[in-house]
Amino acid sequence: MAAAEGENPHSVSDELFQNFYTEVKQIEKRDSVLTSKQQIDRLLRPGASYFNLNPFEVLQIDPEATDDELKKRFRALSILVHPDKNQDDPERAQKAFEAVDKAYKLLLDPEQKKRALDVIEAGKEYVEHMVKEKKKQLKKDGKSQDVEEDDPEVFKQAVYKQTMKLFAELEIKRKEREAKEMHERKRAREEEIEAAEKAKRDREWQKNFEESRDGRVDSWRTFQAKGKKTKEKKNRSFLKPPKVKMEQRE
To answer: Could you tell me how far CA 80 lies from the centroid of its own chain?
Structure first.
């Protein structure tokens, strides 16, 4: 943003930096979980390649959050894991920042966001169905229909696990489909190259054949011409009258 007329640009930059620094400190003070190191560790923990498939999990935000809440959450989290703030571990910070940035951009895309919401909803519906089946079996057995998923926190964890499983399964299928498509493209390319090489060989063969054919025709004509001359010579020799021997007189 340009500085206002008559305003020192350096003072504006200093003000922005101070606001940035203040915001960082407020975030860190508000919740000890949101420290830079802990967030980087969370985003790069073992299995992160699958955990981070859920953009809402990456940003630690409710799927029903508004766009404004999403924007604020992204800013807060990106500040914490930004490489500039974590110069003692810039490489891991960069990877964590990229995960946050990717999740945010995905949720900015309405179509991608809908897909993520559909997966979460499918996970929830699955758990609800399993709970219903559990209660039905307990009722059939004449037992209490109380299940551990009646506890909201346990239910939430069950949905979380199922959602992660669904995201992972979709990612595995995506990779398999991508690998298959890559293999098919590679095979098609190899066939294309082979066809081109075969066509080249055929053209070269045809060219060589035509060139050698001209040579063979010339050789044949030469051979025929020589044969004709030889035959004519023989014929002339055969038709030549014999020499008359003169008689001697006594």
So the answer is: 29
Q: Give the separation between CA 57 and CA 165, rounded to whole angstroms.
A: 13
Rounded Cα distance between 95 and 82, Å, is 9
Q: Could you report how far apart the first and last alpha carbons of the chain are, in Å?
A: 148
Dihedral sign (CA 172, 174, 175, 179): positive
Last residue of a domain, one of 50, 74, 108: 108
**Centroid of chain to Cα 125:** 30
Question: Based on the number of CB atoms within 10 Å of its own CB, is 122 exposed (0-12), middle (13-18) or buried (19 or more)?
Answer: middle
Q: What pTM, to 2 d.p., does this model score? A: 0.59
Q: Poorest-confidence range of 39-43, 182-186, 193-197, 213-217? A: 213-217
> Domain span at residue 77?
31-108
Tell me how far apart the alpha carbons of residues 33 and 40 are, in angstroms, rounded to a whole number: 11
Is the same domain home to 100 and 126? Answer: no
Q: What is the CA radius of gyration of the chain?
A: 44
